[in-house]
Amino acid sequence: MRNDTPSLIAVVLTIALLSCVARGQLELERTVPLPGVKGRIDHMSFDPATSRLFVAALGNNTVEVVDVAAGKVDATIKDLDEPQGVRFLPDSKTLAVAGGGDNRCRIFDQSLQEIAAVKDLEDADNVRYDAATHRVYVGFGKGALAIIEDAKKTGEIKLDAHPEAFQLEATGPRIFVNVPSAGHVAVVDRELKKTIAKWPIKEAAANFPMALDEADHRLLIACRKPAKLLAIDTDSGKVVANEDTAGDADDVWFDAKRNRVYVSGGEGVVSVHERNDADHWPRTANVPTRAGARTSYFDQDSGKLFLAERASEKEPAAIAIFATR
Question: Residue 226: which domain range?
Answer without folding.
Answer: 204-294
